[in-house]
Amino acid sequence: MQAFLFDLDGVIYQxxxxxxxxxxxxxxxxxxxxxxxxxxxTTSRPLAWLLHRLREMGIPAEAGQIxxxxxxxxxxxxxxxxxPIALFVPDRTLEDFAGLPLLSQERESGAAAxxxxxxxxxxDYPLINRAFRLLMAEPHPLLVALGVPRYxxxxxxxxxxxxxxxxxxxxxxxxxxxxxxKPAVSFYRAALDILGSAPEETVMVGDDLIGDIDGGQQAGxxxxxxxxxxxxxxxxxxxIVPAAILDSIADLPGWWESEQGQNGxxxxxxxxxxxxxxxxxxxxxLVEPG
Length: 290
What we know:
Shape: elongated
Strand order of the largest sheet: 5-4-1-12-13-14
Largest sheet: 6 strands, parallel
Strand content: 15-25%
Distance between the termini: 28 Å
Structural class: alpha/beta
Radius of gyration: 19 Å
Helix content: 25-40%
């Protein structure tokens, strides 16, 4: 394994605190010259906030080292020339979609695409019904999901994420969403493009068996499940088998050293870039730093 992808919430940090050992593990990767990328389905906060959160916790990061669905979607929507776009994300996340032609929030028809993110407590019946009416209007706009996670671990317990709301709209309209975040294979290919690594050389570390582990495996990566964040033992036994299950990210260096020893290879024998220029995935997902 020559490169790593890390989920953020529940793997690197939980609420306002880093997961014990996260800082040390990232420092270990940097000292070994092992490339890594943070990949998250977070759409409730903008990229700038995520970057500040990591740095505030003593974890070095640059904008190009964080891949978000918003970052992918902005460039995909711009590339496709979809105009206008009905955007369902918190106001604070609008900055990640700067430059896109947005439909007025009062309109219930005329969208070329309806983009669904995590609105959390802002969801109510009038809002999701507006999304439904937009999707049913002729000509039918494209339904775009910024990831379809089922739930996440909040400070007060589990909270519904964007996935259930996307599923409701799919059911009501009879149409499937185009997913531009995890677990879409295209999202993982975009991450691999940024790192310049091959799938078989890359490991996805996450707390979500479906979005992180199965999604990564479908793209050809190995998946490591950690028992932090929203991990639940009841998630196991679904036919999805991680390469390893660790108590937390703190155990990653030990696991890696063990794997290297078994493979008879030396740590850091090949170094990949920690970032790079803009990339285009095989399925035309354009990705560049936000």
